[in-house]
From TrEMBL:
It is a multi-pass membrane protein. This is Phosphatidylglycerol--prolipoprotein diacylglyceryl transferase. Pathway: Protein modification; lipoprotein biosynthesis (diacylglyceryl transfer). It comes from Aeromicrobium phragmitis. A 1,2-diacyl-sn-glycero-3-phospho-(1'-sn-glycerol) binds at R141.
Length: 287
């Protein structure tokens, strides 16, 4: 008998008549709502127009979902193509499988398109969204919890996650509890989001610096959880593909931060792309 462990949910789908309510989808929706709410408050605090973040989200979210699914399918093609596989399953987003790297990349493209359409500067929007994105990604991991997927190595720790036998990977059938990587990422993301908010209040992280910190903090935590995971993925050399991706994205975030810091020292931040807009409030010194 397991003395202490986190139980996994018995169900991940509920039905209201013919309508299925999937925990994975609900977690993503809740995360998106929180990200928009947090981003809207932060953008308004900068002096931005009410409703701007919501308008941009209408573009960013669909792009992000498509990007996340594309990344997942491209990096794990063996799950959908080949003998015994059904390519149509690649379209079944509700069953899980969204790569955060593709979601952020293509979501940013959608946000950039929206910013240009509305005459809004991109980096103030990205900075406003930074902590909310961390919260959204953490909440989204609850979908993995309900699906009993993407957990870590076996563990006897009191907070080990109970996994039903049918969800245990090949070679791990004899183990009952595993590292709850969904919980690790959720907690880390919430801490990182709070840290960005605090640093922004202290140093006014403009010109993309808050977004760059989001990238670096998220990837730092993701490197740990990715190293713990045992789900079947492609490798490059001794490491999982996502570990290499995490390292590359972290380096990109560092370069972005250094570039943004230089821009912050050279020019005040503007919220729109109009040349006649007065400069934003830069009453605090650049970091």
């Amino acid at each position: 008998m397991i003395p202490a462990a986190i139980p996994s949910p018995a169900e991940s789908v509920w039905h209201l008549g013919p309508l299925p309510l999937r925990a994975y989808a609900l977690a993503i929706i809740l995360g998106a709502v929180l990200a928009i709410w947090i981003g809207e408050r932060r953008y308004q605090a900068k002096g931005g127009r009410v409703g701007t973040i919501g308008d941009i989200a209408i573009w960013a979210i669909p792009f992000g979902i498509v990007g996340g699914r594309l990344y997942h399918v491209i990096t794990d093609p063996q799950l959908y193509f080949g003998e015994g596989r059904n390519p149509v399953d690649a379209l079944k987003i509700w069953e899980g499988g969204l790569g955060i790297w593709g979601a952020i990349a293509l979501g940013a493209v959608g946000a950039l398109i929206a910013c240009r359409r509305y005459g809004v500067a991109f980096w103030p929007v990205a900075d406003a969204l930074a902590p909310g994105l961390l919260v959204a990604q953490g909440v989204g991991r609850l979908g993995n919890y309900f699906n009993q997927e993407l957990f870590g190595r076996p563990t006897d720790l009191p907070w080990g996650l109970q996994i039903d036998p049918r969800f245990r990977p090949e070679g791990f059938e004899q183990f009952a509890t595993f590292h709850p990587t969904f919980l690790y990422e959720l907690v880390w993301n919430l801490i990182a989001a709070a840290l960005i908010v605090w640093l922004d209040r202290r140093y006014r992280l403009t010109h993309g610096r808050a977004f760059a910190l989001y990238v670096m903090l998220y990837t730092a935590g993701r490197l740990v959880t990715e190293a713990l995971r045992i789900d079947t993925v492609n490798h490059i050399g001794p490491f999982r593909l996502n570990i290499w991706t995490t390292i590359i994205v972290f380096a990109g975030g560092l370069v972005l931060y250094l570039w943004a810091r230089r821009r912050a020292a050279d020019a005040p931040e503007r919220l729109t792309t109009r040349e006649d807009e007065p400069a934003g409030d830069e009453d605090a010194e650049s970091e």
